[in-house]
Amino acid sequence: MLNYRITLEVLTPVYIGNGSQITKKDFFLEDGYAHIYDPIKLYLLFGKDYEEFLMNNFTLTDFLIRQSHRKNLNLKSALRYSVLLGDNSIRKSDGINEFIKDPYGMAYVPGSSLKGAIRTAILGNVISEKRGEYSGFSRERIDQFGSTNKIEENAFGEFQKSIFKNIRISDSKPIDNSNLILSKKIDIFKDGNSNNKLNLCRESLKPGTTIEFSLTIDDFEKGKYFEPEYIMKSINFFTDQYRAKYLKKFNSYKDEYGKDVLYLGGGTGFLTKTINQSLYGEDTLEKVSRFLEVKFKNHKHYKDRSIGISPRAKKCTVINRETMEMGICRIRID
Length: 334
Prior knowledge:
The chain is α+β, with helices and mostly antiparallel strands and 334 residues long. It is built from 10 helices and 15 strands. 28% of the residues lie in helices and 24% in strands. The chain is globular, with a radius of gyration of 22 Å.
């Protein structure tokens, strides 16, 4: 058994959701922050006025401004935490997708999220190294084996005996909520423009945050897939491939982050989560556009083929007026 430490440096906002949404009834926008409040404690403070507020269409920002004349209330006693706004276009009526938190209310990154990203990178690298062995899979449509179960079985063995079970990654250490930032979803197209009108915000880890995990490798001699050097090689291969075959087609592309980078969490885009580019090679555009055309019938993905990019929008956000991709982290294994 070998033990290592994995350190991630957040380069662009990372979002990992818990399935819940912070609604306009739960946060107050003020001075560049969203203040998240406990509804039960607000009820104890405001009583019937708060009940009536819950029944109308006002935001919590509206309600607290209207109640600001009540100087004797200790509003801080109802405050859960505050989150910095990454973009001044975030509105008091927006919904906020909440970041996953532990039972003590602290943000963290599940080890399964990081392990999934590493697994995808390794699988993509294995396919590229043994292209002939996977040529039969490349003749199939994406949706005929959407979960890639058969490909993973070929690469790692049957599920119960998978050599990938020899790798364990802990959940991260707790992350103070002061490291959260609100990032708004933005789609950027080939010409650099965006016509995205979704009012979708996410609690994300802000750039500069450091995240630590424990990595345990069992039965080290069984396969090279678990050597740290091979993990890093696979991560760099996967990211370089994504840049060369997809990102460089966008006019706004520039390589700002260099080596030892992986994409983590939600909102990073379809191709960062799949092995399609490794599997389909030059046919990726055709395969992906046809898959998306079937899956999202109203989005006219057949046009992607003439544009030369599919998906036709890369997933971004804006922090301090700077547009950036979601979910980019620098990884180190010690």
